[in-house]
Amino acid sequence: MAEKLEVKELDSVAVRFSGDSGDGMQLAGNIFSTISATVGNSISTFPDYPADIRAPQGSLTGVSGFQVHIGANKVYTPGDKCDVLVAMNAAALKTQYKYAKPNATIIIDTDAFKEADLQKAAFTTNDPLKEMGIDPDRVIACSITTMVKDCLADSGMDPKSVFKCRNMFALGLVSWLFSRDLKIAFNYLTEKFAKKPGVAEANIKVIQAGYDFGANTHSSAANVYRIESKVKEPGRYMDITGNKATAYGLIAAAEKAGLKLYLGSYPITPATDILHELSKHKSLGVVTVQCEDEIAGCASAVGASFAGALACTSTSGPGICLKSEAMNLAVIMELPLVVLDVQRGGPATGLPTKSEQTDLLQCLFGRNGESPMPVMAATSPTDCFDAAYNACKIALEHMTPVVLLTDAYVANGSGAFKLPNLAEFPAINPPYVPESMKGTWTPYMRTENGTRNWAVPGREGFQHILGGLEKDDKTGAISTAPENHDLMTRKRQAKIDNIEVPDLEVIGDKNADLLIVGFGGTYGHLRAAMEEMAAQGKKVALAHFKYINPLPKNTAKVLKSFKKVVVAEQNMGQLAAFLRMKVDGFVPYQFNEVKGQPFVVAELVEAFNKILNA
Amino acid sequence: MSYTAQDFKKGQPRWCPGCGDHFFLASLQKAMAEIGVAPYETAVISGIGCSSRLPHYMATYGMNTIHGRAAAIATGAKVANPKLTVWQISGDGDGLAIGGNHFIHANRRNIDLNMVLLNNRIYGLTKGQYSPTSPRGFVSKSSPYGTVEDPFRPAELCFGARGHFFARAVATDDAGINHILKAAYNHKGASVCEILQNCVIFNNGTHDAVYKPTDRKKNAIYVEHGKPLIFGENNEFGLVQDGFGLKVVKIGENGITEKDILVHDAKCQDNTLQLKLALMGDGDGFPIALGVIRDVEAPTYNDAVYAQIEEVSAAKKYHNFAELLETNDIWEVK
Q1: Segment holding A333, helix H or strand E
Q2: Are strands A12-20 and A82-87 parallel, antiparallel or unpaired?
């Protein structure tokens, strides 16, 4: 009954699609975020998937979720808790309800809440809503499976294919709830299934059915929502995940530098999508080698770098352990190398699909000898593009391996990516040895900023031998001379220390009572917490590190100009420890959490308020 | 442009006097000059160990890298820059112990590398521990009562990894080395050259059976594709097939003539008999096989990578970053 329907205008809303791993929740979520982004909403998404490939259907361990946060203003995170939860089966409701706000609208497929489903989901009664304390008035309970079957009865599709369209019904229903224009979804599906027009047609039909169901029965829902876009940055956009943005950053840097892109890699969650993405783009001349192990992934990249390519290797924490020796070789040989560490929960195999920031100290210090190496961290899915580009630029221009830290959250999450114009990006100029030095050049001669020259094999008159043994500063021959080793150690250190990185930016109140400090993938949550506190009238600011080694030159000045500083990170205090080592007398408060899940903004605000009041 | 060995020489080798590496280095430089690839288009890549010092004495491009990783590093160099001629130098510890995984995968992938395995059956640089090619019972500093493990036989590893080229020479045998290095260079794909090399300090005499020309005459057989497998001081012996194995026969005895002798086929896809040749001479009454034992053509990884790039490039419509962006679902905010 339309007159009962309340249209709520919201600043932002989070929708969580959840179901079995094979239920296509990610596709539904992606289409929903694309539709929303197209009308100018800000978007942020995050998939939460199980480590098992395909747990038994309907089981608690097999549930995967995909959360989409859309906002009228800028959204920085996928949202703490969702306003709408779609649960495609009983197990999904059981495991995902904790991510729903107390007043959230719940959409369930009653066909997947039969006795057997309830048993698999460890419900003890036949009334799961009551058992979980969910108010039935907030629930849109519909027999999605049955309606999808009816809708596609004449399609000639087999039952399995029909069943797979359930996600589109949910999408249609959610689209109605948010008054979304379905045309965009139809176009998306028509393009995605261009080679299977039957599948596209079926999906479109089911979305429409879901939408119509919502429109026809809306009295069962408490409200529909509108999210008007308030800040629009004109331009052309695409939805991009962090891993894809990283891959794009590498491709862009290689093109800008005029170099072949080489990736040596070994499959590892959650970094493998970088290998997948780059493997696709052979028409750009990208060379990917899936190696026999992590060691070879990195070692082959060192070989490729020596031979004149922009060489990269991608991995997660366990892979960094294995790559360390070849990374160290690149340090002493002073060859460019980009090491991508998509951090996950550790130690050892740890939590492969979950997110942490626990590799920072490993990347800074986890090698034998004095082994200085630039370390950077990407702050969001779209920032992965800039970060990867800049990592390549530093590696190539300073002849050094560079670690770029991302994490499972940033890598798998997505955001609206404004298409970059490569012409506007800074040039990348590796220090190739000038032809004039033929006959006089030795491999460890240095340019003004302390970088050695790059002489790529194939150039006549510049033959030289590099290696893992210490070399004489002047001749480049093996040397164990005490003074020379000391000198070379200092030169390698100075080369890294001299790399210019942008100043640390203070966002928010410059006279804040509390400065929040973080690095990498927690940016969105820390920013959202800071803004929420500022809205409450608190004097707070945020300084977020993208460059950790070398630190921005103004680091000490910034950190010491606030009365209270809290370093918040998803580890036990690694950045805090590094800052205390680098900034004399710096004693921050700490907020540490290693749950494998993104920070929860509400918890941050509570913790930071406590520090403010302490 | 023609080269001499001098064009490939650099510095003063620091190996022990009498070390087999000295002999091999001289033969390698001479063979490279005769092969005629410019020093600036050549990369010599080694791991760590006595023999891995070799690149420092070459006037080519090169790297003396980290222990065991030479094959992986050489793989990256060759795939990234296929115009380079890449020689990979490893000892038995570097190549078959810590680097065993990379050794087999370089062979399996058939990267166009010339892989030299200097086998002295000992860890020399760390001063005398048994290696993965030391025989069972071998007494060393780390096995004072003898080892209790069987060694790798390099050919077996190479063949097990579907290797397409295996050859063997003795470090002191310049002509033998020259022959197999040229064959390795001419072979497109991974080629393994096992060099039997003496360590005068920690494993002196390990290859005595074949180290001197007179002993080789007695104890070795030079195998050559298309030639009968004949050996002996007076070429009086030959090899024949015997059931599932090989047998040594004396020509002229029991009605055996040269026509009965097995003819070597290095090009045979099936490596069964090649493996039998490669494993001979382990105190079993057979001679040690020297020369090119297996040399079979197969597609190389590096060629296939670039063929695929070309093929995909022709089929795809995007060839730069800007065009790549356009392949995505794009929306416009006005």
Answers
A1: helix A317-333
A2: parallel
Residues in chain B: 334
Question: A287 contacts in B (CB within 8 Å)?
Answer: 79-80, 305, 309
The pLDDT tens digits for A447-463 are: 999 999 999 999 999 99
| Residues sharing a CB contact under 8 Å with residue A277, sequence separation 6 or more, in sequence order | A243, A244, A247, A248
- Whether the link from the prior residue into B213 is cis, omega within 30° of 0, is no
Q: pLDDT band for B68, please (50, 70, 90 cuts).
A: very high
Distance CA B324, CA A98 (A): 40
pLDDT score, position A3: 37
Cα–Cα dist B312/B319, whole Å? 10
Look up the domain containing A383 and give its range: 239-424
Within a domain: residue B271? Answer: no
Q: Provide the domain limits for residue B87.
A: 5-211
Instruction: Output the CA–CA distances (angstroms, integers) from residue A225 to A78, A83, A180, A207, in the order listed.
Output: 18, 10, 10, 18
Query: Is residue A234 in a domain?
Result: no
The reply to whether B147 falls in a domain is yes
Is B1 an 8 Å CB contact of chain A? Answer: no
Those residues with Cβ within 8 angstroms of residue A378's Cβ, 6 or more apart along the chain or in another chain: A242, A246, A384, A386, A387, A388, A404, A405, A406, A410, A520, A521, A546
Q: Quick one: DSSP state of residue B106? A: H
In sequence order, what DSSP letters do the residues of A429-446 get, joined into one string?
---BPPGGGTTT--TT-B
State which of A500, A518, A545 marks the end of a domain. A500
pLDDT digits (tens, 9 = 90+) for B129-160: 999 999 999 999 999 999 999 999 999 999 99
| The token pair that represents B207 in the structure block | 């290859």
Mean confidence (pLDDT) of chain B? 97
Whether residue B225 is contained in a domain is answered as no
Q: How far is B174 from chain A (nearest CA, A)?
A: 25
Q: Are residues A205 and A275 in the same domain?
A: no
Report how many domains make up chain B: 1
Q: How far is CA A394 from CA A284, A378, A497, A498, A500, in A?
A: 22, 15, 12, 11, 9
What pLDDT was estimated at residue A53? 66
Residues A90 and A208 in one domain: yes
Q: Give the distance from CA A384 to its chain's centroid.
A: 7
**Chain A environment of B330 (Cβ under 8 Å):** 236-238, 419
Identify the band that residue A229 occupies on the pLDDT scale cut at 50, 70 and 90.
low
B80/A262 touch (CB, cutoff 8 Å), yes or no: yes
pTM > 0.80: yes
AA identity, residue A12: S
Share of chain A above pLDDT 70, in %: 96
Q: Which of A481, A500, A519 is the last residue of a domain?
A: A500
User: Rounded distance, CA A291 to CA A293, Å?
Assistant: 5
CA distances from B15 to A424, B7, B12, B131 (A): 55, 21, 9, 19
Residues A218 and A78 in one domain: yes
Is the pLDDT reported for residue A600 higher than 70?
A: yes
Q: Average pLDDT for residues A512-516, to the nearest whole number? A: 98
Q: How confident is the model at residue A40 (pLDDT cuts 50, 70, 90)?
A: confident
CATH code for the domain in which residue B93 is found: 3.40.50.970
**A192 Cβ contact partners less than 8 Å away, ≥ 6 residues apart:** A200
Query: Nearest CA of chain A to the CA of B101: how many Å?
Result: 7
Q: Do the chains contact at B64 and A303, CB–CB below 8 Å?
A: no
Q: Which residue of B has its CA nearest to A236?
A: B332
Give the rounded distance of the alpha carbon of A591 from its chain centre. Answer: 21
3-state secondary structure of A232: coil
Do A353 and A405 sit in the same domain of this protein? yes
Burial class (CB in 10 A: 0-12, 13-18, 19+), A426: exposed
